[in-house]
From TrEMBL, chain A:
Pfam families: ABC_tran. Belongs to the ABC transporter superfamily. GO terms for molecular function: ATP binding; ATP hydrolysis activity; transmembrane transporter activity. The keyword ATP-binding applies. One of its GO terms (biological process) is amino acid transport. It comes from Agrilactobacillus composti DSM 18527 = JCM 14202. This is ABC transporter, ATP-binding protein.
Automatic annotation (TrEMBL), chain B:
The chain crosses the membrane at residues 20-38, 362-382, 406-430, 450-474, 527-547, 760-779, 814-834, 854-872. Residues 528-731 form the MacB-like periplasmic core domain. Signal peptide: none annotated. It holds the Pfam family MacB_PCD. It is a multi-pass membrane protein. It comes from the Bacteria. This is ABC transporter permease. It is found in: Cell membrane. GO terms for cellular component: plasma membrane.
Length: 234, 889
């Protein structure tokens, strides 16, 4: 099996001179096709930085990052946008829905711009919001809003789904059901999902756990028998 | 506290563009408000200073006959006259030219002149000329004068004067069109003053008066009302005196004529008898008479011939006396207020009031937009600051301390805006506007003044539209409990819009159109502001450009559609037969005259407040051919009109100002103030000037005398100014000529107004452009700032830069479009209003706005929105999407 993602000696430095902050130092790892990957680490460790680089939202400083055959270091801004557009779905801690659009329209916002988009209504039904598609974000709970955000990311039919602390603002049960969505997505579509979290209790659900400490990879472990989310406790 | 101040400082620099754009808006509003409202008043102040310094006469008494002792006594004793100074005035020609000069005796106390260079005349051989002639003459030069009429009377003692200096006078404040004259081309070329002794004895024909019961500045209602009252009260007194002196003159002339005629008749008899005797003698003597006898006979014959010549001369004198007697009815003794005897005074006042009129309308629109936009912007700012304010409250800061930031920020824009706006409005605008007037009036610089009340008013309005807005919003926010304040304001719940209920349309909209539609209605207040702002600015642009079009349009319409003559040549048809014949011969023989028609021409006036509106009365001898010179057509239906005995046809604006209609009566005044009622048979289209047209029989009914055919309507072979002037100059040399009324005169008046308003119009257009730009920038900036998060989300989703821009700009473009469309309608109305107050009292407003104007205004507005779009695009594209999405807010 070839590597879906391969990160080699990647370094990301913000700023220059005295104020320079190196958020990622010489990071290397591989991710295989169809994996549910968890990037774990304390606050400030450099997880978001790494995820943003994988998602084509930021330029790396040194090293090489290849995703699905695309060498991200070689892309200019426009090409990075195209990469995001065609291949990436992104979910944030804060849902970032457009308040003035209904749930369905928020999903359509994403599906509109790609060619092989999934049917927005169907995706909403898949995340369990089939009946709420005409509601505005303000009429939905936090968990429901996050579901819409996930539906929006999935509707683009991306090769890679990235989630940065997707349960950070949610309670235990709601968080769990959100994680369930990601696991189901990987199993059903055979696509890749990377979840960034500081909560080590959820690591059993992943196929692959990369632990980041102070901008560097601390451990890189694979898990042949991931636990179903329903069985997780924390 | 220190940290709080630091925070405030940071806020200022952080949102500098917003701070500056609101400041700019208020600056513009204050600038236009103050500038347009002080300039008129500054101009009047400037004029008043000169009037005061030169002690400009409150009124003048003039008469075509010289003033005798009795006249002078009557004038000096007129009620409320503080002082009367008598003087001479005569219009002459510069020798060998068509240039007319008005020469007056140098006034000593009233309407004094201001010496610009050289000296006042020191002896009867010296003259001072008006300053504008400095280029043509130098001090020490000789100036040669000639009578205006070929064989006219000459009131000065000498024909050559030495120039001793150059002066200015507030009786002649216009720099061209100094005044009308019956000499030369009809326009004064210049004026000069000589010592009273330079005039022949008993030629005083002018009295300058000051009153002891007037107060207030020139042009103030207080002053003008009192003057009008005085003049109205005194004219009848002068009429009585005039009647007396005419009767006396009439008596003298009658005696002269009777005795003269008798003498001449007796003389002729004697001469005839003598000639008969002489002839008999000659016959008796035959040809063989002694040489001595023959010589005696010849001497006798010569004596008889001499007597004949004398008799003929006496007869001419009798004829002249008869003519003079015939003209006595036209002699008057008129008192005129400044507005009437001093054309420049009147026009300067009207020009300044024209700016006042603009000052009452334009700033309202400017400020309204500035207020609306500042108000929303400030309220939005406070809403953005909810969390920060909540945090500060939670930390224990008082409400006042928490509010300080937004209050300082908003009051800062108000104070800065007022300071900049007042500075520009008090100094720059009056100077710029006045520059145009300085070219046409004899004032070099406008006097600036403080006008503190306007500054205070501006500050109050500015504070109300910023600090008050911020305070209201902050107070409302702080009323909520602190805990709530810390949470982001619940997302303004999206809502269904009306369009969605019309499923038929909604389902056919593309996704992006749906989003646009929803966003449009989500931000209703901003939608409203944008439309109002753009509409207002577009309307101002249209009006600004339209002023020029419309004033030019007036001239176009007048001369293309209505007036086809070049001049009305007025002459004295009661002069001696030979003189009258010379006039008619001249017109018949002048090769430049293409066609002419006889008419009776006179002037009456109506009153409109303190100003007299002159009306030209025209009675064509042949009513059928009138249409070749003036096309009379119904003002509403354009139907051709013809004259009959049922009433007069009056011009449109005259009917309008006096609110009279077909079938009504209009009251007019003769020069001596007596009134006549004229029945209106029809109202004719006319853009410039007040006119009364009637046929002979209706004239007879109104004026109780047959029309006196004293004028020829003249159409020349070519209509250029030079040719009309040449005709006027040639005609004016004739003894019986009175005046040449040039049709182009009205053209010049309107053109002058236009050129005087030029700078003002430019300022208005530039300000409107800036306004439109700042409004677009401010509102779009608020829009973009508020929706950064949304835009970042789009970027993360993979929207390309252009798609991100269009996501916002589809709305902005629609709003701009609607704003422009609304602005076209508003501009149409606003322009119509401005054009109803701007043209002179006797001028109609030419209808409509031109397509070119609309196009330019639209293109400019679109151009501004494009520039703003480029600026906003940079802002949108440079935003860090990750930064924006990180935080809660
Ligand atoms: N845009 C940036 N500019 C400067 N420093 C940054 C920027 N983004 C992140 N950092 C720094 O990089 C480090 C890693 O941040 P981040 O990747 O957000 O950590 P995590 O997501 O693991 O909490 C932190 O020290 C943070 O301060
Ligand atoms: Mg993070």
């Amino acid at each position: 099996m070839t590597n879906f993602i391969s990160v080699t000696n990647m370094t990301k430095t913000y700023g220059a001179g005295e104020n320079a902050v190196t958020a990622n130092k010489d990071i290397s790892f591989d991710i295989q096709k169809g994996e549910l990957t968890i990037i774990l680490g304390a606050s400030g460790a450099g997880k978001s930085t790494l995820l943003n680089i994988l998602g084509g939202m930021d330029q790396l400083t040194a090293g090489q990052v290849v995703v699905n055959g695309t060498d991200l270091g070689q892309l200019d801004n426009r090409a990075l946008t195209t990469y995001r557009r065609q291949q990436i779905g992104f979910v944030f801690q804060f849902y970032n829905l457009v308040p003035n659009l209904t749930a369905l329209e928020n999903v359509e916002l994403a599906s509109e711009i790609v060619n092989d988009a999934l049917d927005p209504q169907k995706v909403l039904t898949e995340v369990g919001l089939g009946s709420r598609s005409q509601n505005f974000p303000a009429q939905l709970s936090g968990g429901e809003q996050q579901r819409v955000a996930i539906a929006r990311a999935m509707a683009k039919n991306p090769d890679l789904l990235l989630a940065d602390e997707p349960t950070g603002a949610l309670d235990y049960h709601t968080g769990k059901s959100i994680l369930q969505l990601f696991q189901d997505f990987v199993r059903q579509s055979g696509k890749n999902v990377i979840i960034v979290t500081h909560n080590s209790m959820i690591r059993p659900m992943a196929d692959h756990v990369i632990e980041i400490f102070d901008g560097q990879v601390k451990t890189d472990t694979r898990n042949d028998q991931p636990t179903p989310v329903a069985d997780l406790e924390w | 506290m220190k940290t709080l101040n630091k925070n405030i400082r940071r806020e200022f620099s952080h949102s500098l563009p917003r701070f500056l754009s609101v400041t700019a808006l208020l600056t513009l509003g204050v600038f236009v408000l103050i500038g347009l409202n002080v300039t008129g008043s500054n101009m009047r102040q400037t004029a008043e200073a000169r009037y005061h310094q030169e002690n400009l006469a409150d009124a003048q008494v003039t008469t075509p006959l010289n003033l005798n002792q009795g006249d002078r006594r009557t004038i000096t004793n007129l009620k409320h006259v503080a002082k009367a100074e008598f003087g001479n005035s005569t219009d002459v020609l510069l020798k060998n030219s068509n240039h007319a000069l008005r020469i007056e005796s140098l006034p000593q106390t009233i309407s004094k002149t201001t010496l610009v260079s050289g000296k006042q005349p020191q002896n009867a051989g010296e003259i001072v000329l008006n300053n504008r002639l400095k280029g043509q003459y130098q001090i020490g030069d000789q100036i040669h004068l000639a009578t205006a009429k070929t064989a006219g009377t000459y009131n000065l003692k000498q024909k050559t004067y030495r120039i001793s200096g150059f002066v200015k006078s507030t009786e002649f404040i216009k720099t061209d069109n100094i005044g009308n004259t019956s000499a030369g081309s009809g326009q004064l070329y210049g004026f000069g003053f000589v010592k009273a002794g330079a005039f022949k004895a008993n030629t005083q024909n002018l009295a300058r008066l000051t009153f002891n019961n007037v107060s207030g500045q020139a042009y103030s209602a207080e002053y003008e009302d009192q003057i009008t009252k005085n003049v109205d009260a005194l004219q009848p007194v002068l009429n009585r005196r005039n009647h007396q002196r005419i009767q006396a003159l009439n008596k003298t002339l009658t005696t002269q004529i009777t005795t003269g005629t008798a003498d001449v008749q007796a003389g002729r008899q004697q001469v005839q008898t003598a000639q008969g005797q002489l002839d008999t003698l000659k016959q008796q003597l035959g040809s063989q008479g002694a040489p001595a006898q023959l010589a005696q006979l010849n001497a006798q014959q010569a004596q008889i011939d001499g007597q004949r010549t004398q008799l003929n001369r006496a007869q001419t004198q009798i004829d002249t006396a008869k003519a003079t007697k015939g003209q006595l009815a036209d002699v008057n003794l008129l008192i005129q207020s400044r507005n009437d005897f001093n054309d420049g005074y009147n026009q300067f006042g009207e020009d300044s009031q024209r700016i006042d009129a603009l000052g009452k309308s334009f700033p309202i629109l400017f400020f309204l937009i500035a207020i609306l936009v500042s108000f929303t912007t400030m309220q939005r700012m406070v809403e953005e600051k909810r969390i920060e304010m909540g945090t500060l409250r939670a930390l224990g800061y008082t409400k006042g301390e928490v509010m300080r930031e937004v209050l300082l920020y908003s009051a800062g824009t108000a104070v800065l805006g007022t300071v900049f706006g007042s500075g520009l409005g008090l100094v720059l605008l009056p100077k710029v506007i006045f520059q145009a007037y300085a070219a046409n009036f004899d004032f070099t610089q406008v006097q600036l003044a403080w006008h503190p009340w306007l500054i205070v008013l501006s500050l109050v309005i500015a504070l109300a539209s910023t600090a008050l807005a911020a305070w209201l919003a902050a107070r409302a926010a702080l009323k909520e409990i602190t805990a709530q304040l810390m949470l982001p304001k619940p997302p303004s719940s999206g809502s269904r819009i009306f369009l969605e209920r019309i499923g038929f349309i909604w389902h056919h909209l593309s996704f992006s159109k749906k989003v646009t539609a929803r966003n449009l209605f989500r931000y209703k207040s901003r939608m409203f502001m944008t439309i109002v702002g753009i509409a207002g600015a577009t309307a101002i642009l249209i009006t600004g450009f339209g002023i020029r079009d419309s004033l030019n349009g007036i001239i176009d319409h007048q001369f293309k559609e209505i007036v086809h003559y070049d001049a009305i040549a007025v002459y004295n048809n009661k002069a001696t037969d030979t003189q009258v014949k010379r006039v008619t011969d001249f017109i018949t023989n002048d090769p430049h005259v293409k066609k002419d028609a006889t008419a009776a021409f006179s002037q009456v006036y109506t009153t409109n407040g303190n100003t007299k509106e002159n009306i030209q009365v025209l009675v064509p001898k042949n009513t059928a051919t009138l249409k070749n010179y003036i096309e009379l057509q119904d003002s509403k239906t354009n139907a051709k009109l013809s004259l009959n005995s049922q009433g007069a046809i009056i011009s449109e604006k005259l009917a309008k100002t006096h609110h009279v209609q077909k079938g009504d009566y209009l009251t007019v005044h003769l020069a001596d103030g007596t009134t006549r009622r004229v029945k209106i048979k029809a109202i004719t289209k006319m853009y410039v000037g007040h006119y009364l047209y009637m046929n002979a029989s209706y004239y007879q009914q109104v004026f109780h005398q047959a029309p006196s055919y004293n004028a020829q309507l003249i159409t020349l072979t070519s209509h250029g100014q030079a040719q009309v002037n040449q005709f006027a100059a040639d005609f004016s040399r004739l003894n019986a000529s009175v005046q040449v009324v040039q049709a182009a005169e009205s053209k010049r008046t309107v053109t002058k107004i236009l050129s005087n308003l030029n700078n003002l119009v430019i300022v208005i257009i530039l300000s409107a452009s800036l306004l439109s730009f700042v409004v677009l920038y401010t509102l779009t900036n608020v829009n973009v700032s508020e929706r950064m998060r949304e835009l970042s989300t789009l970027k993360v989703l993979g929207f390309y830069p252009k798609e991100v821009l269009m996501y916002i700009y589809r709305e902005t473009n629609i709003l701009t479009g609607v704003g422009i469309a609304t602005g076209l309608a508003a501009g149409w109305g606003f322009h119509a209003y401005i054009m109803s107050v701007l043209p002179p009292e006797n001028t109609m407003t030419a209808p409509g706005v031109t397509w070119a104007n609309l196009l330019i205004s639209i293109i400019l507005t679109i151009l501004f929105s494009l520039i703003v779009m480029f600026m906003m695009n940079r802002k949108i594209q440079s935003v860090d999407m990750l930064e924006a999405l990180k935080s809660v807010d």
